[in-house]
Fold each of these.
Amino acid sequence: MRPFSSATGFTILAGLITFASQYILVHPLPWLGSSDAASYVAVARSLADGHGFTKDFLEHSYELSLLQFPGIHNPEAHYPPLYSLLAAPFLILFGEDTFPSRLPAMLIGSLLLPLAVGRLARALGANGPAVFAASIAIMLQPRVYFRSLLADDDLLFALLVVLFSTYLMETRTSRRAYLMAGLTAGLGFLAKGLGLVLLPAAAVSVTLLSGTAVLRDRKTWAAFALALLIMLPWMARNSIVFGDPLYTTQKLAAGHFGLLGDEEGGHQLFWDEPRPGLLDKLKSRGPRGVLSSTAEQVATYAKWTFLDDIGVSWRDSDADFLYSSYAGIGALAAYALFVFSIGLRRTGTLRKRIAPSGVPWSRPEMHVLWCVPLLLLMVIAIAWAPSRRIAIMFLALATGLGWAAYGGIARTLLRRGHLSSVLVLLMLLPYAERSIVKIRSDSLTLPARWEESERPWKEAGDWLRTSAPEAIVMSRQPGILNHYSGAKGLTIPFASTSEVLRIIDHYHVTHVIPDLDRRPALAPLISGVTPVLELVQSGELSIYAVRRSSDKSR
């Protein structure tokens, strides 16, 4: 019988307790928690109401450039559909939007991702205690815990990357693993556009594991066909609606992030000119600039993945930093020993000492755990700006590898006895204690932080719902405002006064919530000789009505 065979059962029990704590924390809160969540919730509600992948706000300037849409109601152009598809049944079942839309993320963060990380550790040869430790470590990771409270796709994509990597490792011994890898790659694309990178990652990984002959094998092509079949409906939809199977405004944003600040890079308009993309960004940077920025991002993601698990740093106490970085240090050691060991002959005495049976760095499957994250990281580093939430997928892979390494070390040193199990579990205790303290501390301030950021938008939404139910509102947070008011809306672009006026006229905007600190171009519309905007509701977010020419003549 396998030692600690109930690791999965204990993980599920701990996951249910974690889920219950999240329920108690966020169920009473009416706040969305992020502007991205507003988009996922809006599309989920649209699906639940039978209106398809549409929403009633334009959130990015790329959607306004060249006056792309005739009206505000528009097809979703920014995010892939999988999270909204998962959330829609909960909205149908429970009726309201805010809390039910979080349930897929909460279930992933408290149960599915921990189980997947534990399965990854087992695929690397970990025994029960190390599997349990890997599962609990990712479950109690504060970044994961709090990201679970948002209706967002980051944990969903991390889950699919972990499963995809695990199935790739199992292709050496299981034909079924090929199809499962294809399934998770296809779903990964529906979760994030970045999931497209999983296809070349699969090709490189299986070649490293099994040689080039595997690329001529029928099972390999069946897996790729399955992945493409899953991707095809969304590609077909984008081709029909936008004329591009891979269309997304995120792809357009890749031409700015890292070059321009968030405001200009995310909300700039382009008139009578093609909207720049990634190739334009690479040309403007030049080879040296691309290498420099990529190296900086790789270093940033390495820190977030290996040396900053629960928000402490080397400036804090040495003990806190040490056990907060358990998994990362173990993963780094495993990578280093793997690189060293593949350079030695398999029969060499030194190799036998550093790569005994049962430790992850002795396994060819380790090729997957450098190939998949490296290809993903290279695309992210070139195309985007650093994002700590994206690093969750790298952290999940490192957690599974790190605890598998510790389990292998303990069994090697202690001859597979019960002491090795006790040692691994004892190592888990300080990490779990530090994580729980961090989660509890941040949980106490979470309601106030969410209220502070969204209460003004809710108040503005309540006024619009009662006083201007047919309003079309221009603001910096059209998704959040739409959630609280039901009003159609669009973003305030980073543009000149005349361009803003053109958009106001084209989309028949009735009200504006200006942000003069970030959008000074709106100032002449409020305080000019002939003001275009008239104050109708003062508050933390003041609301202005648009005065048309006919209004001014009265």
Amino acid sequence: MRSLRSISRILLFLTIFVWTGCGDSGPTGQTGENSTGTLTGRVVDSANPGAGVAGATVRIEGTDQVVITGADGSFEFEAVDDGDVAIVVDMPDHLGYEPSRVDVSIHGGHTVNIDVTVLPEDMRPQGIELYPQEARAGILSEVRFHVSIMEWPHDGQTPNEGRIPRPTWSILSDKPIGVISREGTFIGTAPGRGEIVATFSSTITATAEIVVVSNDDVVSLFIGPWHGLYLNGGEERYFGAIAINGAGQAIDESRIEWSLDPADMGVLESAADLTEEEREEILRRFPYPASGGYYGPDDFLPEFVGEWSLIRFRANEPATDLIEGQLLATAGTMDASLGLTIAKRGELDQVFLGPDEIRVREDQRAMVVAWAVNQFERPIRGLEISWSLEPADLGTLEEVGFPYPWCPECDWVVDENGEHPEGPFPGDDDGGHMPGGPGHSDPGPDPDMPPIDEPFGGFFMDDDFVRMFVPSRFGGGEVVVVVTDPQSGKSIEARAAIAVDPPPELDLLKLSHDLIDVAAGSEVELFAVAVSTDGEVIHDATITWKVSGSLGELVRYDGPHDPEFDPDIFDGTHPNEPGTSGGAGTSIDGDDPNMPDPDPWSDGDRGFSSRLFVAGSVPGEGSIIVEAVSPAGRTVTGEIPVILR
């Protein structure tokens, strides 16, 4: 049994517990026999919580207790009756704040200190939601609550230079159960049940249920893997669960009970015969719980191996072609479930390739996905597959390394940098981009997606059923797959046509100026773009600059770019090489905070290049020569005449 808490958490709690004037709401001080308590705090700007609001009227609803906040926004009420009270804050009209009403519980003999935030009127959201909606905590354990803004005013944009307002956090309970910080971190102090309240104004509030349990009770129960699974009849899979008690320790795995609903979905067997190494390999595929959420396989800690309850599940062959149900884990009063879909395995019936026609340039790549179904048009697992190209020298079929969702509408085409080209994929009528893939973050399985969607959607293929086609030359050919069912020995072949086009060649140079006519000593921003025969930027073309005579000099330019420069080429975006500084789709106004430094606008003079022309002090005439050279050796030259007056 290992604790998931550190001594620093206990010290943090002790610090919060004795605070009486730092903006946290909850029980503080010593418990006595008094039937009244003290309420203190400040009225602060929710978008700038360090700023107190003076001149606000604060009253306790239903009483004659009223105060006006001081210069720092502070207020105090003594002899406040036990129970739930409503703090009402009315603001002078000229200050521009929403009125607020905050509910909080007062317990006899305690002092509650609370920051009451007031919302600027121009930051009023349409509504808020509080997460998690329900939570359990042990003594001295933490739960972090978050507010989600449903919709901002001003076309959905956060107003006032991106300031994010903070709600008032308070607790409603019939006895002291914990404290909550200004940032929404709750720490349990005694067993009980209550509500966490987040308040922005009198009409914008959200609540969540909180239960504090004793050290021996289960606080949370996790089951892995965390997403629903699709299995064929007869297939085996390991599952795991871990339960954490109020002391932050994993409970003995023997206290976790497993069951199936319906019970005839399959058979649950003990996994006690696994070695430590086998357990670790299985658990590396599961997320595991920790403070603040889940960690993925890359963060797996071997010390958790012995604390999981593992079970072996063998799916029964369903009587119908498909059955759906749940795997259940129970520990004390807590339970967790995992959705399962069991499909009749049947026999290999059809094999498909997606896309069935592939057309790429020689400098691009294409994702190819194979899938196989049985006579019920359901995915079938446990198959063997071989891949090949005809002719073999057309390119290579590389392993992708992780599963991809099957998508019948999408052709997985990426360029030489591993990026999806802009615009819709071939065959994608909606113009959308699929998640995942090289150059895109992979979102992983969607927990809201059903395990299977007619006829094949949502089924995640094994690694062997996904390949990346990398061309070696232009020409035509086919991708060939042969899928074999080892149970029946049946094999089926599928083919997809491939057409590899040569990459576009360098055609012209787009220059920012036709003529420079300026006074001596002036500075002029210059840009050049290498453009292909099909109107695209040639990202691997090399661009060089020269200036004739003693007209001046050309220096690197890393300042703001003119967003109006040649909209036919720029179209409001920086035409830089995807994946490098600037990047396709990056704003060219020079204000992007994500741009790398230094020299954020230079890509090494490849495809797009910029210079600052610093004119000399002597009037005269000449020109600036710009040259672009493609990888194939084609050269295009441009000239900008210069007149210095």
